[in-house]
Amino acid sequence: MSKKQRAAESTIENRVYLFRELAAAFIAREGALLTSPKEADRERARHGLAEIARVACLVADLEHATPDELAKAIVGE
To answer: Domain containing 55: what range?
Structure first.
């Protein structure tokens, strides 16, 4: 396995780990939204999980970024 392949696998593993941890915290706090009878609540929860996935990917992909660079990437600057 090449160094590039190992780095790609490591990034994927980091993404999964970060998403799992962040999503668990979100679900512990807002999990009821996922099973709400209101479609708007369920949609809001799905959007929240999608945003958590985006942030997990950014954090994993930008592992060498400074905290300021990472913050700017997360807020879209």
So the answer is: 3-75
User: In the 8-state DSSP scheme, what is residue 38?
Assistant: S
Question: How many structural domains comprise the chain?
Answer: 1
Q: Which letter does DSSP use for residue 2 in this model?
A: -
- How many other β-carbons are positioned within 10 Å of the β-carbon of residue 58? 16
Between CA 10 and CA 59 the distance in angstroms is 13
pLDDT digits (tens, 9 = 90+) for 9-67: 778 898 999 999 999 999 999 999 999 999 999 999 999 999 999 999 999 999 889 99
29-to-12, 15, 24 alpha-carbon distances in Å: 26, 21, 9
Burial 5-18, CB ≥16 within 10 A → b, else e: eeeeeeeeebbeeb
Instruction: Check: CB of residue 55 under 8 Å from CB of residue 32.
Output: no
